[in-house]
Design brief:
About 25% of the residues lie in helices and about 30% in strands. About 30% of the residues are buried. The strands form 2 sheets. Strands 2-3-4-5-6 form a 5-stranded antiparallel beta sheet, sandwiched between helices. The chain has a two-stranded parallel ribbon with strand order 1-7. The two termini are about 30 Å apart. The chain is globular, with a radius of gyration of 16 Å. The protein has one domain: Peptide deformylase (Peptide Deformylase, Alpha-Beta Complex). The protein is of the alpha+beta class.
């Protein structure tokens, strides 16, 4: 089932997600719905808070980057199979050079900005079967994980921008929260005026 993506301004996006266990009700259905929602909105990652569920769960599918000719052959090959479910994730370490990448977010449509993040992460998480993993990831895959991990910490990519950039997009963000934006996927706007 395609769920509405929660728009900027909704308090659920600011909550630190709660850890869950393998008995979390309807977990498989939630994961399936998140994948369906992400694909319907042409995303490469989505976190549970973005569908209104404040838990430590996010999914990533970086396979569209396998077509990106700006990336090395090695990175494209790695991304061609990079599809994961992350439950109760913890970033253990972030290392390497900070680099800028133009990020966007399904909850903040039509806003894209360069965000600086470190190149390499070590992350501990459980998959959908509650098997534990510790992985070291770098490049685009690390970037996608860092962005989605921020969501379960109540952080949005716009929080990482300079004060000037934040001022420049303030009006756009206000319009998004009021639903004054056209999107081609289902969204739920926290401050939209009710139609009579």
């Amino acid at each position: 089932m395609i769920l509405p993506v929660i728009a900027y301004g909704d308090p659920v996006l600011r909550k630190v997600g709660k850890e869950i266990d393998k008995d979390y009700p309807k977990l498989d259905a939630l994961i399936d719905n998140m994948f369906e929602t992400m694909y319907a909105s042409s995303g490469i990652g989505i976190a549970a808070p973005q569908v209104g569920v404040p838990v430590r769960l996010f999914i990533v599918d970086a396979t569209p980057f396998e077509e990106d000719e700006d990336l090395s052959e090695e990175e494209r090959e790695f991304l061609s199979t990079f599809k994961h479910v992350f439950i109760n994730a913890k970033i253990i370490e972030e290392t390497g050079e900070e680099w800028a990448f133009n990020e966007g977010c399904l909850s903040i449509p039509d806003v894209r900005e360069d965000v600086f993040r470190q190149d390499t992460i070590k992350i501990e998480f459980y998959d959908e079967n509650f098997d534990k993993h510790v992985k070291e990831v770098n490049g685009i895959a690390a970037r996608i994980i860092q962005h989605e991990f921020d969501h379960i910490e109540g952080i949005l990519f716009t929080d990482l921008l300079s004060p000037l950039k934040k001022r420049l997009i303030k009006g756009k963000l206000a319009n998004i929260s009021k639903g004054k934006i056209k999107v081609d996927y289902r969204m739920k706007f926290p401050n939209a005026k009710k139609k009579r």
